[in-house]
Amino acid sequence: MLHHHGLKLLADPTLKQTAVAAVAISALLPDQLRQNYHGLELLVNLQEKWPAFDLETLAKIVDDLHEQTGLGVRNDFPLVRRCQPVLDDTSVYEDGSINPTAIA
């Protein structure tokens, strides 16, 4: 259940240096389950605070590694493609969630 704690785990003195932190960060990535509708924005915020975390570069590495597995299955939705809208411009990023201000 710790993967639902997101970036807050990076402030924990013990857990921030464990695989738990990596899992919590990866849970912010866009996926079919939509575990976190604001995950991409949080990852962009993380890269602003932690220069070693480069979302676009990491997404490209993940896509390259996926391709190298040689499964023979085309990846129609590579991670770079799913991350690109927020990398291009976070102000126009639309994740499909309900905007509470718009319905107020």
Describe this entry's structure for a reader:
This protein is mainly alpha-helical. The protein has one domain (2-103). The protein contains five helices and no strands. The longest helix has 14 residues, at 55-68. The radius of gyration is 15 Å and the shape is globular.
How would you sum up the global shape? Answer: globular
The whole-angstrom Rg is 15 Å
Structural class label: mainly alpha
Q: Main sheet, how many strands, which sense, barrel?
A: none
- Percentage of residues in strands: under 5%
The overall number of domains is 1
Quantity of strands, as a count: 0
Order of helices and strands: HHHHH
Summary keywords:
single chain, 104 residues, mainly alpha, 5 helices
Tell me the layout of helices and strands.
Layout: H1 19-26, H2 39-49, H3 55-68, H4 79-88, H5 100-103
Would you summarize the structure shown here?
The chain has 104 residues and is an all-alpha fold. The protein has helices at 19-26, 39-49, 55-68, 79-88, 100-103.
